Amino acid sequence: MTTVLHHPLVDHRMTYMRDVATQPKLFRELVSEITTFLAYEALRDVKTVEVTVQTPLAKTVGRKVAENVVLVPILRAGMGMLDAMLRVLPYAKVGVLGMQRNEETAEPIPYYAKVPPAKGDELAIAIDPMFATGGSAVDAVSQLKKLGYKKIIFLNLVSAPEGIANFEKQHPDVPVYTAAKDERLNSHFYIVPGLGDAGDRIFGTL
To answer: Can you list the domains of the chain with their CATH numbers?
Structure first.
């Protein structure tokens, strides 16, 4: 199931992020801010436990997150979302998956994987800004499942309908949270209207 995060504050930031005139520094800040909104939405049902805490006035009962979380950015663009996720979940572990896109076929080419195997009921959160054909996302989640992860969430910024359909067909059990569902893919498998190559815009390598 895919959830599109409809929110005026997200739409406002997305408008600036799409703008070709937006420079890398601001682009990175916008990516980080939208990622934070996505994390809040995706983690509404994260597991918590009750704890007793002493305030300056009295004892009270609060809640602490009890989920063991592993963040998994897909290299390289996913690294642009990582700092925001670590601010929300500072205790999380981090693994990485390297994927390179074949520009002719748009198929993902895995080239690196460093993710701790699941030891129990850890929650894996895969992050990648763009969801074009969905190939990298499908492959990343397949790798996580092979490592024993049974609870997986995928967060991204901009999705194409083709990518969503492909992912939901291959991994119907994995929820996706995205900030925008765009119109289509073009003949070069880029999202339209999209925002260009997210990795190049994050790292200033246009």
So the answer is: 2-203 (3.40.50.2020)
